Amino acid sequence: MRADRFAQRRARLLALVASEGLGGLIVTHVPNVRYLTGFTGTAGLVLLLPQDTVFLSDFRYRTQAEAELGDEVRVEIAPADVWERLWRVLAGYPGVERVGFEAQKVTVADAERFTRVNGRTRFQPVRDLVERLRLSKDADEVAAIRAAGRLASEALAATLPCVRVGQRERDVAARLEAELRTGGSEWHPFPTIVASGPRSALPHARTGDRVIERGDWLLLDFGAQVDGYCADVTRTVVVGRPADQRQRMVYQLVREAQLAARQRVRPGMTGREADALARGLLEARGLGDAFGHSLGHGVGLEVHEGPRLSRLNQDPLPEGAVVTIEPGAYFPGWGGVRLEDDVWLGPGGPELLTDGDVELRELL
């Protein structure tokens, strides 16, 4: 059944490749390689042709590739340069005259390789063919993200009772990441953010050595990974004393915006319309300028992928996408609040994949 899933994906991709007037596609982006073949390593590329699928890598991945890819994918292990091996493989298909490559993912140095190849094959840059397929998640993908979300919630629940005034941000991040790994997360999809006090006003703060003080905001943005699929969660808490009046006001408004967006977002609305679900509420309450980033993004094999829930995105959100809902409000010198959950855009409406627990927490 698992092999059938990858074969179906490759068949759908070949239809897109043909619609571009191409005879094949070279896939180099590692998450796309995994999506098409099930290969979980970190180095390899795929030559996708109507008559064959060829996976190319080096000696390190021979045994792993043969175990993971099955009989429908031909494995080629290069003794030295994988690209040179690719040109030799391509030479065995003289009828293939035009082949695409992932323009948005190859380096300049790799792109130059295509201009130096002799022979009748011509290479054409294409963009986001595999990513178009990845926008909508199947049941197995949704289940993996849901499982990752559950691990994230459990890790946070084990970490927060241990947070104290006087700890460093780095101490909290270390405990949270240890809980994630112990609980079963394959890895951390991105560097964990733990930002305290005025540093919580930095939407993408780097976890540092700042010592948590009494009454600080503590913003935690972190993820878990199951079967390659990511969950992305943010929670903001108050440490050392009950929240003051301003903290309660800002938190409540961000919470209302997050709840409104995650309950009302639908497939078919544009990314701009989805973003407005939260932005309109914050603007009406005078916090529009404090919410400077987009409402969310797609999440899957990568923690940041399409679609975008942004003022700049006029495209409709596809049914089956998994997206983050993460409004925030940030005030330099004072701090910020962000609340983030992951939502599947099903045919019947949004379905929460993370725990959705956004009640204000005061760690006393």
Characterization of this structure:
It is a single chain. The protein is 35% helix and 24% strand. It is of the alpha/beta class. It folds into two domains: 132 residues, Creatine Amidinohydrolase, Chain A, domain 1 (3-Layer(aba) Sandwich), CATH 3.40.350; 225 residues, Creatinase/methionine aminopeptidase superfamily (Creatine Amidinohydrolase, Alpha-Beta Complex), CATH 3.90.230.10. Helix 9 runs antiparallel to helix 10. It contains ten helices and 17 strands.
Chain-wise SSE layout:
Blueprint: H1 2-19, E1 24-27, H2 30-37, E2 45-49, E3 52-58, H3 62-69, E4 74-78, H4 82-91, E5 98-102, H5 108-115, E6 122-126, H6 129-134, H7 139-159, H8 169-183, E7 193-196, E8 216-226, E9 229-239, H9 245-264, H10 271-284, E10 296-298, E11 305-309, E12 322-325, E13 328-331, E14 335-338, E15 341-346, E16 349-352, E17 362-363
Helix pairs in contact: 7-8, 9-10
Provide the descriptors you would attach to this structure in a database record.
364 residues, alpha/beta, 2 domains, four-stranded mixed sheet, Creatine Amidinohydrolase, elongated, six-stranded mixed sheet, Creatine Amidinohydrolase, Chain A, domain 1
